[in-house]
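Subject line: Sequence and fold of a protein, written as structure tokens
Area: Proteins and the way their chains fold up in space.
Start of record: The labelled sequence and token lines come straight after this line.
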Amino acid sequence: MVRKNTSIFISGTGSNLNNLIKKSREYNFPINIKLVISNSYDAKGLNFAKKNSIPFLIINTKKRNYENYILLQLKKYNISFICLAGFMKVLSKKFIYSFQNKIINIHPSILPKFKGLNTYSRMMENKEKIAGCSVHYVTEKLDSGKIIVKKKFYINEKDTEEIMKKKTQKLEYKAFPEAIIKIFRNI
């Protein structure tokens, strides 16, 4: 199996990055993580890249043409697939078209419900009974691409936002690798 050179984009703690690094060490997992990109200098997830000797870049998204720089780096590392794992920056239409159907994202809700930010608080306000996560292709419309995998759980009336986040993350650690396998099994 030829594994796809992949870049993981992060902004925070990187728990999904860490999970994907572990999965990528498995013999038959279809991606090889070659580059980590963060838009945050203090993203804790960069420690997982360092610990696993994976090159990483910290991008200043306030600079003009930062996406062109990212595209050059992706080309340099021969990247053919991108996973957004808590990357808190919207990519431009141009960038997305450069990697058409080769960028996926994990979102902490059962899409199409609760696109965007503040997912857990909006679920609580809406008195939702079911929560979960979705892995989807990235398109120019926020959290609107074709869904690859969804995972669900029932919300307990005692669940707080923090408990919901922990439950969702447990599902994300299953959903993200499952989606990647599903994508490359179909190619």
Observations:
- The mean pLDDT is 95.
- The domain at 4-185 is CATH 3.40.50.170 (Rossmann fold).
- The longest strand covers residues 31-38.
- Strands lie at 4-10, 31-38, 56-58, 81-84, 103-107, 130-137, 147-154.
